[in-house]
């Protein structure tokens, strides 16, 4: 579209864990590729950041998908897909990627202060 500021989809390979692109959230069509030798290292690399909005796992091994998705410190984990969801499912991050959840009934907690009062008469 004319008049906009756009970034073409970009892939960075040979990214190391110390690089800024591996440590910060990038909101754009950017993929940073880090190599790993096994699933434990992949999870360690993915969790070694102050952010945790979302993650994606691509695998044909359902057991590995469950193990990795449980271990990832991200508010949403997609397996073999990306940006799936609807308004009935909470969305939000972990660590420095936001507070609380958007969408679903869980989002109402942000706008509600619950209080209990007990009175003995």
**Share of helix among residues?**
10-25%
Tell me, briefly, the overall form: extended
The average pLDDT is 88
Distance between the termini: 69 Å
Q: Flag low-confidence runs.
A: none
The tally of helices reads 3
Sheet of most strands: 2 strands, parallel
Quick take:
Helix content is 19%, strand content 15%. By secondary structure, it is an alpha/beta fold.
Task: Please characterize this protein's 3D structure.
The chain is α/β, with parallel strands linked by helices. It has a domain of 76 residues: Aldehyde Dehydrogenase, Chain A, domain 2 (3-Layer(aba) Sandwich), CATH 3.40.309. Helices cover 19% and strands 15% of the residues. It contains three helices and six strands. A two-stranded parallel sheet has the order 1-2. Helix 1 links the parallel strand 1 and strand 2. It is extended and about 70 Å long. The model has no long low-confidence stretch (mean pLDDT 88). It comes from Actinomadura namibiensis. This is Acyl-CoA reductase-like NAD-dependent aldehyde dehydrogenase.
Kindly list the characteristics that best describe this protein:
Aldehyde Dehydrogenase, Chain A, domain 2; single chain; 121 residues
Give the helices and strands, then pairings:
Layout: E1 10-12, H1 20-23, E2 30-32, H2 39-47, E3 51-52, E4 54-57, H3 62-71, E5 76-79, E6 94-95
Parallel strand pairs: 1-2, 4-5
Antiparallel strand pairs: 3-6
GO molecular function, one term: oxidoreductase activity, acting on the aldehyde or oxo group of donors, NAD or NADP as acceptor
InterPro entries: Ald_DH/histidinol_DH (IPR016161), Ald_DH_C (IPR016163), Ald_DH_N (IPR016162), Aldehyde_DH_dom (IPR015590)
Protein name: Acyl-CoA reductase-like NAD-dependent aldehyde dehydrogenase
